[in-house]
Design a protein that fits this description.
19% strand, single chain, 40% helix, Leucine Aminopeptidase, subunit E, domain 1, alpha/beta, 5 helices
Length: 175
Amino acid sequence: MSISVEVGDLTHVEADAVVNAANSLLLGGGGVDGAIHAAAGPRLLEACRRLRTTSHREGLDVGDAVATPAFDLPAAWVIHTVGPNLHRGQDDPALLASCFARSLDVAAELDVRSVAFPAVSAGAYGWPVTDVARIAVLTCRGWLAEHPASSIENIRFVVLDERAREVFETALDAA
């Protein structure tokens, strides 16, 4: 099992599942969410709308995760998770950790081998990338240790710039 970090575009990553930093409505938005919806094509929005009329009528809770097919993305699955929004007072690190843990739970249920994460909540939701990196790395390492028989073999953090990569590398070295 490996955990790595790279600078790149999550919409071009070849992984079994990519994690979308979604909003609770699951209907697309800005940042990573908007990029994933644009690259996956209109069927992703249709799949998310179906979730809103069936299992997630009230939307997706902060810290939870749900999957849809990835459609036009290189991945097979998109795992949508809603990170806590620091600007709205959602400052509990457990909520952020839950995004990573629940995404891995969903990935394991899908029997995937590789998962690619963005820096959930580090962008428009205002969390410092240092906090996101530390929480993400510790949560993913802990999850892998607790689930040694899972199908997941590779976790990748795909970040937007060199600074974020360095922060995640530091978190990986420290954990």
